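User: quick one, fold this
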Amino acid sequence: MDDKILRTTRELIDEAGYPALTVDQVAARAGVGKAAIYRRYTSKAEMAFAATMYEQQLPPLSGTGSLHGDLLALVRAFHLRMATPAARQLAPALISEIAVNPGLDARFQDTFLAAEQALFAEIIEQAVARGELAGAVAPAMAHLLLLGTLASALYIINLPVDDAMITDLATAATAGITALADRHHSDPGSRGRPG
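Assistant:
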């Protein structure tokens, strides 16, 4: 049933765009009740987000052997999801809804963002183990430096994001994460602060 709901949502977005999408349409075409949809998703925006950007598992870690390589592989994988026409329609609507819906905000933080930050935690842990980083950096800060910047470029500034820019984003995030690790390692008083 989950697959049917998400597949139908994608079809309807492709046909008429996100603004025209309704839960009623998804339920009717998928042959499920609206209650079944609302048991899974708190809103149209969450359902559409799951269908367009998180219909698959998060990308596995590439294990490139370097912090920069791992971040570059990750940002390339996320760019493929985040740059689709459906995602570009949906992301601003979702951001707007999260701003006024504390329940959706909490759910988004606990599901999608927590899973993404777990990937960053693993990348950072491996970089520390290899000796590339002087110490740990908060996964939320690494997430912000890389994917927050990509989201801003795609959804707010509307920049044309190509592979050269993606490589630059990974390079900048690597430098930022390395600088934060160095600062936290050399300043023991900063270790308790986030970031």
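User: anything notable?
Assistant: Residues 137 and 181 are 6 Å apart (CA to CA).
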